[in-house]
Amino acid sequence: MAEIVRMPKLSDTMTEGVVSAWHKKVGDAVKSGEVLAEIETDKATMEFESFTDGVLLHIGVEKGKAAPVDSVLAVLGKAGEDITALLASEAASAPKAEAAPKAEERKEQKQEQETVAAAPAPAPEKAKPAASGSVPAPKPMFGGPTTAAAPAQATNGRVKASPLARQLAEEKGIDIGRVTGSGPDGRVTKQDIENFSGGGYIGAPQIEKYEEVPVSQMRKTIARRLSESLFTAPHFYLTLEMDMARAMSVREAINKQIAPDKISFNDLVIKACAVALKQHPKVNSSWLGDRIRYNEHVHIGVAVAVDEGLLVPVVRFADGKPLRTIGNEVRDLAKRAKDKKLQPSDWEGNTFTISNLGMFGIDEFTAIINPPDACILAVGGIMEKPVVKDGAIVIGHTMKVTLSCDHRVVDGATGAAFLNTVKSLLEEPALLLGIGAI
What we know:
- The protein has helices at about 85-95, 105-120, 165-170, 190-195, 215-230, 245-260, 265-280, 325-340, 345, 410-425, and strands at about 5, 15-20, 30, 35-40, 45-50, 55-60, 65-70, 70-75, 155, 160, 235-245, 285, 290-295, 300, 305, 310, 315, 350-355, 375-390, 390-405.
- The chain is of the alpha+beta class.
- The chain has three domains: about 5-90, CATH 2.40.50.100; about 165-215, Dihydrolipoamide Transferase, CATH 4.10.320; about 215-430, Chloramphenicol acetyltransferase-like domain (Chloramphenicol Acetyltransferase, 2-Layer Sandwich), CATH 3.30.559.10.
- A six-stranded mixed sheet has the order 11-20-19-18-14-17. Strands 1-8-6-3 form a four-stranded antiparallel sheet, with no helix packed on it.
- Helix 7 (about 265-280) crosses helix 8 (about 325-340) and helix 7 (about 265-280) packs across helix 10 (about 410-425).
- The chain is extended, with a radius of gyration of 33 Å.
- The protein starts with a strand and ends in an 11-residue tail after the last helix.
């Protein structure tokens, strides 16, 4: 008996998927465990394996197309099996979308209605005596035939036209006074401009160019989750500037010892935050609506920029890992993120997030909290600038960090205490370098 294969839910935030490739075509035999298709989720492209044996009788989502979770992805069954009734039943149970006029048509109708409503009524003309020997032209009856359309008539020097027609004429470089209007009283409409071919151009048309691309699954999820975060969680922000001179010296010394597995400043920030979170568990927490979860483990999400948006793979139990291990993990996670090879276990479970734009030349910024975390740390670049040390102005190297906090969970004093601990660890990095810390 034929069986429907539905679009799987491959991540906790996935609402629809895009078929990036089919590994089978209609008529092919499929065995359980064989890769049937590749599905692009909001975070990665993943292989989807068949759960049963059979013949691929129907493909419900073509390559490159999107479909909601649980919709018909394919149908498997016996060779030659009739699946017409099965697909008809599925189609009958699917919600029907009501037909609606095109947005452009609705806009045109609305603008024309507004223009007609706003236009002043013409003043009644005084009757003029007919010239000797002439016969007044008969006035048409209401609803009766009218004469052929003529070029748009001007009122007080202004051509009657809809706002959309005027805009389109300007874009196309058309003298709107040369256009024959087909609307009431010779009024020029958008369609008249589109159909115009009688000359009267007032210059070379200025053409606006653009490209529209479908929103990727990843970008849709970023938009939804971060909008929910920003408009649901009451954010507040705390900024500290710290002296990075000793961190620079320590990093240079470490990298001479452990080449080629070099550590980055971001690795130092991850380690410092992980250690500080153990001392300030209220920052390492989550708002769950009717309760607050204080996490004893430290899983730090590290924001990674990819072509289609942002992924946040997780360094687990970061407080107990040496700097070299943290550095290797971050490099591996970043590479797999860019290659779309991350698995759900790689991006789930974060308790705190770090977003570092220092390598892009950004001095300071604020970040939106990454749910379910209560905080996210935005890290700027290390800047060379004059600083005061021991009463004298010298050249220093400083870095600004900004902590975004969910005020439902973290208060100002709590966030400030955490930031000062991070500051002390980075300004005295020897505190991070305990036994096995490198």
